[in-house]
Specification:
Chains A, B: It comes from Actinomadura rugatobispora. Chains A, B: Pfam families: TetR_N (PF00440). Chains A, B: Keywords: DNA-binding, Transcription, Transcription regulation. Chains A, B: InterPro entries: DNA-bd_HTH_TetR-type_CS (IPR023772), Homeodomain-like_sf (IPR009057), HTH-type_TetR-like_transc_reg (IPR050109), HTH_TetR (IPR001647). 2 copies of one chain form a homodimer. The first copy, chain A, has 191 residues and is an all-alpha fold. Chain A has 2 domains: 41 residues, Homeodomain-like (Arc Repressor Mutant, subunit A), CATH 1.10.10.60; 129 residues. Chain A is built from 11 helices and no strands. The longest helix of chain A is centred in the middle third of the chain and has 25 residues. Chain A is elongated, with a radius of gyration of 19 Å. Chains A and B meet through helix 6, helix 10 and helix 11 of A and helix 6, helix 10 and helix 11 of B. Chain A binds a DNA duplex (18 and 18 nucleotides) through helix 3.
DNA sequence: GTCTATATCTTGATAGAC
DNA sequence: GTCTATCAAGATATAGAC
């Protein structure tokens, strides 16, 4: 196995290059030529590793879906509401902060959305996470708070205004803020 | 002026068709052929009304930017903090609810983002809105709450889970929830 | 595993008839 | 103001040499 490349095998470098370009230009705005150029190979080399562009999309998205699924399952495994929330928020925020500007782009990209919707194993992940956040409440108000926190965390974590915060600080700020916002609907459980 | 079309002149129908398709497939995922087909004309007819695809993007985006600018300016014209917040939130939520599923897609689309960033008159709209939300606070915590509310409102207003709420109800729910979340940082002003 | 070369299709855009 | 016909460029994808 030829390992004369700067960092790791070509397949993984292709996935990383694609990830960055997808986030910046969208999937439709990123040609295989751009991806190949990014790591210094030709289009044909890309096609050796991935039979089609869709396969590349799948390779880019899958690790994130797996990580998210693991977080949701871990949270569902907890029993007390506070623990479920902490596990879910902590896990999601870790994912967001570790990737920063990528999540919004990936989540909003029409091609990726369609790809994810086409995978039955992953389709209800968003709803399961939402149910965990809502807890026992099922009214409209709780739903709206849940939606605002979900979308708001993803949006905030990608903001250029927070770019100079280090990961640890950003994680802590997002977690406490999300906790406090979600606490609005259940003020009694807060100390 | 030939007015033998189902609804209004062709130019406006093209803009509306483009808006819907952009939101669904993204700008790069929407060909001029698709837009032409949508209203039953040919590509060449599109090019009569818009010299280039970018001009169509501009025609789609401009009304929203103008509306947003009007809201921000109206809010900046108020003097008391509570009035500024109410004007801003009310205006933005009206825009979101009136268009629902469009805003997230438009805001996240790389082509549209680039187009907006290239218009100096509109570039600082987001920051001005953010400053209005933050009020006198300038710390990280206030910034994060502002970001979460901004992104969260846009995200929530597009959620399928809220699709069956009528506009009036959705508006009211979003407004009171946003108000309460922003109230976290200034609990003294809330009775 | 990576290359050159090419096939095929779709795109944004133009020319000119009506 | 809309059409048919066409162009040049760029896209995904394939074939076959090394």
């Amino acid at each position: 196995m030829a390992r004369n490349n700067p960092a790791g095998d070509v397949r993984e470098r292709l996935v990383q290059a694609a990830l960055g370009l997808f986030a910046q230009h969208g999937v439709n705005g990123t040609s295989l030529q751009m991806i190949a150029d990014e790591i210094g190979v030709t289009k044909a080399a890309v096609y050796y590793h991935f039979p089609s562009k869709e396969d590349l999309v799948e390779a880019v998205v899958t690790p994130y879906l797996r990580d998210l699924a693991a977080v949701v399952e871990a949270a569902e495994g907890r029993h007390r509401r506070a623990d479920r929330l902490d596990t879910l928020l902590g896990g999601i925020i870790d994912l967001l902060v570790d990737n920063r500007e990528l999540h919004i782009a990936l989540q909003a990209d029409p091609v990726i959305r369609r790809h994810v919707d086409g995978r039955p194993d992953m389709r209800d992940l968003g709803m399961r996470a939402g149910l965990l956040m809502m807890g026992t409440r099922t009214d409209t108000h709780a739903l709206i708070i849940t939606l605002i926190v979900s979308g708001g965390l993803a949006y905030a974590s990608t903001s250029p205004y927070l770019a100079d915060l280090d990961d640890t600080e950003l994680r802590r700020e997002l977690h406490t803020t999300a906790r406090r916002i979600l606490g609005i609907k259940t003020p009694i459980t807060q100390h």
